[in-house]
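Section 5.1 Outputs to date
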Amino acid sequence: MIRTLLIPGSGRLAITSALLGTLCLSSGAARAQGPQPTPTPIAAAPADPAIAAALQQVSAARIRATIEKLVSFNNRSTLSSMETDLAPGTGVSAAADWIEAEFKRISAACGGCLEVKRDDFIEPPQPGPASRILKPTKLTNVYAVLHGADPAQAERRVLVTGHYDSRNTDVFNTHDPAPGANDDASGVAVSLECARVLSKLKLPGTIVFVAVAGEEQGLNGSRHLARLAKSEGWHLEAVLNNDIVGGDTTPDYPGADKSAVRVFSEGVPATATIDQLHQIQTLGAESDSPSRELAREIADVGQSYFTNTLEHAPATPGRPHSMAIRNLPAFHPVLIFRRDRYLRGGDHTSFNLEGFTAVRLTEWRENFNHQHQNVRVENGVQYGDLIQYVDPAYVANVARLNAATLADLAAAPGAPQNVRVVTTALDNNTELLWDPPAGMPSSASYEVVWRPTEDPTWTTFVSAGRATTLKLDVSKDNVVFGVRAVDPAGHRSIAAFPMPVRAASANRPPGPATRQ
């Protein structure tokens, strides 16, 4: 049964007249239908005290120690798993064993709260001249599961990952140093630190902390894990892939920004059919894939847990005290609306290709002298992915953003399902309908959000309460709508984009073209 909310009143602050004009509100239709809910500018949700306390436990020193340990394995090439002449304590298999032990150590500290698993498999040789695996090769993904505390929502999962394999100039080299400090010991450090600081929280949904192998050989480990998740029916709502999040510290390197991390997200879903592509083009929904909505949620969460700071000018001996104050920008995600960088790929794509919502986080400006390079000095330039070029404080901020997003999504209700916008006739109104997510708490409610078509993030919302349909005197032609669930503490689900339906079929289950 669909419960209808016919434009309830609202006591929220009024939106600006300019934005109201943009939204094409019609006073005549409002009088005919009843009082309109007041559109409200979206503001940052209040920080959850338990999540904020966990973020304070993130340690740059621990992150540095993790990266140092991974570097100590000398060369973490995926191919080294098949070598028999490696020095003890080196190679990718030794690194996998250590990561597993770290997850178990974290679990022991929280009373066995993590279920630690290995995903071991043999990757067959790859065909073709560009093959990076020439013989059957053992790969190991290591992951830890923090099961949700609410039986009604524990099937919902969010996941964070980084890849622990490394490479130097020669992708087949298994013996010479390939420290991989930034690419991607930094991402593995994020997964481990998130596991450590979030492990003692009791959250409704489940969080999975992952370190995968095989990225440098062709995303092999993540592809296997994504297919495993699909075959086992994981209700995987979000994947955060951290790859090259070290905050390069090369002296005088131009363009670095230690306050920003990029979030890459695909626009058109990788699994879209031809009919779905046509529908996406017709609707102008190229920027509203589930992964793009996840990126927006990361930006939303970031505003709740990161704030600008003030820095006073340092005292100078023998000179009058300066009253100068500098406003330092908060650490923040920058949304990059493409799947990945030019000529590069990442493990989030493996999950996209299996139909999962996934994004990539990467430092603001990469230094390619410190990626995929033999360790050497050439013409006075140091090459190699060395730990001296990683900023642990920057990685700690990336870990905080990941941990906040994971915890917030695990604490929030699931996203509304089967969201539809009714397109019965030509009009200047909007009627939205949706189904509750599994395990929707009785205390949670729904919000309809929207933004002008040219804006990157949601700007405005109205509350729908507990109803699962809402009629608005806002033209669906002029804005982009979404629907999200929110609990009383302000934890927000990822917003779901509505697909058009005729009134006669509005209550029917969606066909293939309406699934996101």
